[in-house]
Amino acid sequence: MNPMPPMTPAPAAAMSDVAIVVTLVLLLLAPLAIAGLALINTGLGRSRSAAQAMLGNLFLGAVAAVVFAIAGAGFAGLPGNWAVVLQAYGKTWSILGLGGFFLHGLGSATPQAQLGLLFEILAVVMAVLVPWGSGADRWRLAAGGASAVVLAGFVFPLAAHWIWGGGWLAALGTNFSLGAGFLDGGGAATVHALGGLSALVLVWIAGPRRGKFPREGLSTAIPGHNAVYVQFGCLLALVGWLAWNAAGAILWLHAPLTALPGTAINTLLSAAGALVATFTVTRARFGKPDASLCANGWMAGLVASCAYAGLATPAESLFAGAAAGIFTPLLVEGLELALSIDDPSGAVTVHGAAGLWGLLAAGFFAPQPGQMLAQLVGVAALLGVIFPLVYLLFALLNRVVAFRVDPDGERMGMDLHELGGGAYPEFVIHRDESYR
Question: What topology is assigned to 2-413 in CATH?
């Protein structure tokens, strides 16, 4: 490996002034997706941890933005900066960015590069919030902030460089004629698969909430404390997702402005198809539709659309979303009953599994020959490199900053233990009968 200026595919044509303005407006709307996810994370936890959950969404997001600006953006790589490259098979493979730390050189970058950086900052904030919901009611704020440092400072930038920064996955098309290289217009890999895999690592390390599995083979239902937060979060997320996928299509898929209505339609149809499918599955299994699982299905459809909204037809998006809606409640139930995975927000399925499914679906839908193989290589890199890396870093981090709160803190609730006050002081919050 040698540090040298990165070898990137041929640059896209410079963005017009109109495209720059449209992309900026879309990115200003995209944080609504983050706000929706924050409400969902909070609503699916217990009432006695609601204030800590919402503060955690703000705190982790702020830490991620600061750390990414200081170091992560340099590893992700700004165009024209140096990179660590590997020479193999007569080809040059860019592995990691080297330059642009503390956002040095941003002022001289093109508007397109600056918009790409803004997209990445929003993306890393979203990525660190995904596992926060899985750690509800037991994950300490300090540990959550430390995990945000690790994810935003190195893991997310590594994946972002591979996919968006001219790295080796993006170069699969140039080097091996595998379609257009690995495609991820809206962050199905860099945000959601990464976030979902991080959530899986977290629940393995932190363990389930006390009382969740009182006897081996059995599971106690611990419903979220506010279904209205969750459902409203889904509606809020839709607005942000429409903007998010449209901005990603312009920046990473180099789509013309005329393609944006189709991207928005595909995003909506994917979410709608997923919700209808989850509604049908839960009603068939339980006799009545399940509100939280339906919300998970809706979000799974949005997550999956990040990969293919700018590539697929409306019919294909509806089909892929419905498939995500079918497997979401089944996988959530399977992970809980078969593997004792306590995931209050369902992030392992909603973001991890749905993100990976969307990436594979994009390979089916893309018109370029060899695109499916490029997507498979990218998925393999996520599972074979990023996943073990996150596990290693989180396991080491847990030895320095313990992830899980002590039993007394979990009993009294994260609000009182970490903040000294509850989210709903005017109401009497009863102790969960399932607690042991």
Answer: Ammonium transporter fold (1.10.3430)
In angstroms, the CA 153 to CA 416 distance is 31
The closest alpha carbon to 67, from 124, 10, 3, belongs to 124
Residue 223 tokens, joined: 């419903």
* Closest C-alpha to 241, from 209, 267, 212: 267
Gap between the Cα atoms of 344 and 332, Å rounded? 10
Question: Rounded CA gap, 282 and 338, in Å?
Answer: 19
| Tens-digit pLDDT profile for residues 79-111 | 557 788 888 878 888 999 988 789 988 888 899
> What tens digit of pLDDT does each residue of 143-198 get?
999 999 999 999 999 999 999 998 999 999 999 999 999 999 999 999 999 999 99
H or E element that contains 93:
strand 91-98
Query: What pLDDT is recorded for position 74?
Result: 93
In this structure, the strands spanning 82-88 and 2-4 are antiparallel
Phi, psi dihedrals of residue 4, rounded to the nearest 5°: -165, 165
Report whether 175 contacts 93 (CB < 8 A). Answer: yes
Both tokens assigned to 308: 């293919």
State in Å, rounded, how far the first CA of the chain is from the last one: 54
- Name the pairing type of β-strands 91-98 and 82-88: antiparallel
Where in the chain are the domains?
2-413
